[in-house]
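In the design runs reported in the main text, the only information available to the sequence generator was the tokenized backbone. The following block is the verbatim input for one such run; it is reproduced so that readers can re-run the procedure and compare outputs position by position.
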């Protein structure tokens, strides 16, 4: 049985090329990937583009994420403080079990939008590798900051970055 070397080379190149196309990390300076996901509670389709012209704190989280227990109350306060200036927090839950996310939100209620990505498709598009991972997106839809993890001291720096973006036209 003779193996065609050209066929093997083509197959390997195709596999490598496909892997490279599907692993594009979202980076600072790039336009945020556009998506539509259902809200957690009402399954209402919500598109990222519906927040165009606003500064967005896009937060990928899960109910089992210990730092999320710290971040949610602080993000909610920042959202309440800055929303009149054009700031939105959009949290994307990655739990497969919707009930676990709902239980978390009963313990840590928020006024910002919570979406659901149970299959993790958009977490993969944004290349989320730790919980939580957040992206600060400017009014033009460009990622300006990526933040991994969370502790209570982080909120000051994050609010400063958001406030600077809100001041820009």
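Verbatim output:
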């Amino acid at each position: 049985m003779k193996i065609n070397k050209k066929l093997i080379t083509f197959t390997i190149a195709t596999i490598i090329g496909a892997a490279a196309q599907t692993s594009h990390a979202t980076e600072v300076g790039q336009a945020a990937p556009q998506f539509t996901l259902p809200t957690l509670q009402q399954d209402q389709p919500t598109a990222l583009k519906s927040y165009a012209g606003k500064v967005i704190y896009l937060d990928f989280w899960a109910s089992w994420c210990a730092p999320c227990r710290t971040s949610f109350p602080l993000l909610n306060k920042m959202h309440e403080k800055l929303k009149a200036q054009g700031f939105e927090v959009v949290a994307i839950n990655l739990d497969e079990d919707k009930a676990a996310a709902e239980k978390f939100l009963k313990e840590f209620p928020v006024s910002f939008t919570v979406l659901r990505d149970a299959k993790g498709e958009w977490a993969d598009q944004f290349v989320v590798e730790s919980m939580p991972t957040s992206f600060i997106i400017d009014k033009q839809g460009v990622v300006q900051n990526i933040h991994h993890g969370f502790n209570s001291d982080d909120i000051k720096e994050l609010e400063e970055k958001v406030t600077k973006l809100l001041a820009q036209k």
